[in-house]
Amino acid sequence: MKVVIQRVLEAGVEVEGKSIASIGKGFLILLGVGKEDNKQIADKYIDKILKLRIFADENGKTNLSLLDVGGEILLVSQFTLYAECKKGNRPDFIKAGDAKLAEELYEYFAQQIKERIGKVETGQFGADMKVSLVNDGPFTIVLDESLI
After folding, report:
1. What residue spans define the domains of the chain?
2. Which among 40, 29, 66, 65 has a CA at the least distance from the CA of 141?
3. Which fold would CATH assign to domain 2-147?
4. 55, 78, 109, 122: which one is catalytic?
């Protein structure tokens, strides 16, 4: 898996000109699923994401987690995180998981997070989405399996 986490003041997703999801303070998470991914790997990411201390405490130090601040999550599938650009100028997505696996793990990821925090919104798997956000900081973290 590859995950991009953006700390946001707000974020939203539109499909075909209609708003389908929006959150306030929290994380916009872009989730890419690879060929070798499974639920156990997803569980590691979920645990790490919910425990990341990247919100400021009363002293301005990044000591608080999403759970500590009552933050929300907007989860968006993004297979393009697996783009390989070493050869030529056209990205290759050969390491991305197939659509069936990716959708299954995306839904699993969303459900597991929903069981642990208040508000979780999702994009529409496989759709052409327009994602908007107000990045807070900006604060962006990229996780892949070597970093969790």
Report:
1. 2-147
2. 29
3. D-tyrosyl-trna(Tyr) Deacylase; Chain: A; (3.50.80)
4. 78
